[in-house]
Amino acid sequence: MADMFAPLVAQLKANPKTIVFTEGNDPRILEAASKLLAEGVLKVVMVGNEAECKAAAAAGNFDISAAEIIDPENYAGFDEMVNTMVELRKGKQTAEECTALLKKSNYFGTMLVKMGKADCLLGGATYSTADTVRPALQIIKTKPGSKIVSSCFIMVRPSATGENEVLAMADCAINIKPTEDELVEIAVETARTAKVFGIDPKVAFLSYSTLGSGKGEDVDKMRNALLIAMEYNALLPALETPAHTEGYEGFFHLQEMHGKAEKATMEYIVRDHDMKRFQERKAMMDKAAEQINRRWGDGTAVVDTHDQYYNMYEVLKDHMEILELAESAMKAAGIEHPTHSPIRGGTDGSVLTYKGLLCPNLPSAGHNAHGRYEYAPVELSLIHI
Question: What is the structure's pLDDT at 122?
Fold first, then answer.
């Protein structure tokens, strides 16, 4: 334990800071103050009635003779302090209300820090956490870039190797139901605090739910929908995408993904020239969702499929005369050897074919249809015209 604080103590001794204790007559505070003063770690300001603080120190045999004791009731700079607080509160509290609050040691001590009379504050021996934090929020506020105040404690315990394991755990006292963004901020600030104590932080989030054993909004906050979406996509065959298939080979095409940590949506195009394999691909997506739901809880992943196109060959194979007509027309136009090739994209002609209007696709001299790099050679287009 001593080793953990050694660098911090050395730094403070080299450049002593001033700490203000808001409960100057509490025995625990007096003991802490006497040790800090004896070791020369911090300068100490005690808030309270001077006679009561000294009497309590004497009763516990604590030496606080080097401490400065300030009583709000007779503090020379009290009026300045009131005026400063009225300005800080910007109309939210009157001078009379600020005066009443500053008579309390928690507000008084916080204002000492705000006005530069002290560098830090320790309270909560008799005040509640809320009464300790509230003055800081109203007067000092959060640092730039931070939206909330959070807390952490440093836990030291023996590890399996026999050496001490040092952990910084948060948030254990301030934020009861933090949002996803607040959890991130708490983690970042806790990691920064850990570094002060010589800890090389490795951040982990804790939840009382293991693989979906717990239910409710508190568990849901620990889930990152974007990461789960990536996990879902990883359950689909990695090499069955447009980039890794050709010809009559089917594929899963993730064409759009959007969302935040709370909710994410992915849109796929699923294609296959074979009807049986097409149905198997849709079933594969449902099974991937089932696996996600087993891991993260029912309803985490929902698959909603809509059939758009089918392979028109399923209809045209019984009406090949329409293809023969097309080939005859192409030969009449000077194309001696018409070829057949699979269309890997969708076509409205498929919908019409299934409605009884046969629509095989005829070439239009275009390339990369419906893609980012779609083009048509001008020379060939002119020939067809």
Answer: 92
Q: Which of 182, 213, 287 is nearest to 279 (CA)?
A: 287
Q: In the numeric block, which tokens belong to residue 240?
A: 């069955």
143 secondary structure, DSSP code: P
Task: Choose among 43, 47, 41: nearest CA to 18.
Answer: 43
DSSP letter, residue 137: I
Full residue range of the structural domain in which residue 111 is found:
2-141
In DSSP notation, 130-179 reads: HHHHHHIIIII-PPTT------EEEEEEE-TTSSEEEEEEE-SSS-SS--
Distance of CA 324 to the CA centre of its chain: 60
| Token pair of 182 as six digits | 């607040």
- Number of domain units in the chain: 4
Residue where a domain terminates, one of 114, 141, 168: 141
State how far the alpha carbon of 43 is from the alpha carbons of 13, 145, 233, in Å: 10, 30, 58
Collect all residues with Cβ–Cβ distance below 8 Å to 115 and sequence separation of at least 6: 77, 80, 81, 84
- Token couple for 170: 């948060």
Lowest-confidence range among 63-67, 160-164, 217-221, 313-317? 217-221
Q: What percent of the chain has pLDDT over 70?
A: 91
Mean of pLDDT values over 229-252: 92
